[in-house]
């Protein structure tokens, strides 16, 4: 359907109905949200794990026409949730053409639009604003000024138009007025300085603000939404009390509560479908990758106030696939299967995302990351133990206790790895069982064997080191006894 281009055409269109002429953005969001609920739509596509916790709270706030803040640690999809609110806006709305603040033709707020309507009347040109253009987002930083958010006086405009500085037509509008009739999102709200927050709640509540000593009244129609990290309240700043009081709802986000859900999110977000050699990722390798993040979130050496972002397993999976890709290209293996050793090759994807406490800093991020991988492998193995022949595990431990050792490079070909693992009684048998059956491809069997050895190392039944590979625990002790004192 052709959209009206003048005020006269608009007044004879369905948009001019009494219930839509001056409908606020909050009423618009509420109406579209109610329709989506009645249809049974997925409200936030791509957001996993919030269906029974966060989503209902956001829905309640929107139905109540409230501003709200999402409070949570890094990597909890806060920004994505806010961007998803555009689904509840109309496809497009009419505005006075040329207006910087998206003036409603039936209820203009700027002097420019009022004068335009008075001058042209029914011939006033109408433009249309799509829903994506009605979402304005700003990352709060300490250097943000009131001019950035609200606006400032423009001497050039004054000179060119022959206006005095106090005239509204000399104003250069900031982000908030330009978000009129839309959604304005501020990420990391506590990073805004106190005086900027004061200016923000003043225009939220009273609709006026002073710019360079001149009072400006802007009766804005904006849905305000925010995000914040609890760490910011003490580390960098805080939300001033009057502003916090004016925010309708404080909604606390969270990390995935089950490993399976985390795996689903990671698989959805990670870039693993590539145009290079075929790479296969066994399910238990995906679980190990996800459990690294779960282990880190409970580790006392990792700063709980900063959290462990869901980006950690996403980046780790991408790097694990890359290492398998590199190995496939070097050895011309098709397909290539990811292994537990690939997690060690992807350590930078872990260490860069861990904020450590003092004890952790003393041990070093790399040492902690290696331990997290080992613990994740152990939990993954134990979760499958009831499906395995545990007598084979005892055979493996006995072989190492007899003084044997096994060292395999992370980039060895699959056939060489399988041959080496075949030296350990029972290892290939249990590795094949982990890889799901006798017909499993050799790459998955190698990954299964590595999982068994990593789990036994985590249980301290055997030892693992970069220098010696997998050995009996006593071999490491004897080596340490033979080293000279520092």
Q: Can you walk me through this structure?
A:
- With 486 residues, the chain is of the alpha/beta class.
- The protein has two domains: 7-252, P-loop containing nucleotide triphosphate hydrolases (Rossmann fold, 3-Layer(aba) Sandwich); 259-480, no CATH class.
- It has 24 helices and 15 strands.
- It has helices at residues 7-11, 18-21, 25-39, 54-63, 78-83, 111-120, 146-149, 155-161, 175-178, 194-205, 232-235, 241-246, 259-269, 283-298, 311-331, 341-345, 348-351, 358-363, 365-382, 390-401, 414-421, 427-434, 442-458, 473-482; strands at residues 68-71, 92-96, 126-130, 135-139, 151-153, 171-173, 182-187, 208-211, 214-217, 222-228, 249-252, 279-280, 336-337, 463-465, 469-471.
- Strands 4-7-10-1-11 form a five-stranded parallel sheet.
- Strand 14 and strand 15 form a beta hairpin.
- Helix 14 runs antiparallel to helix 15 and helix 22 packs across helix 23.
- The model has no long low-confidence stretch (mean pLDDT 88).
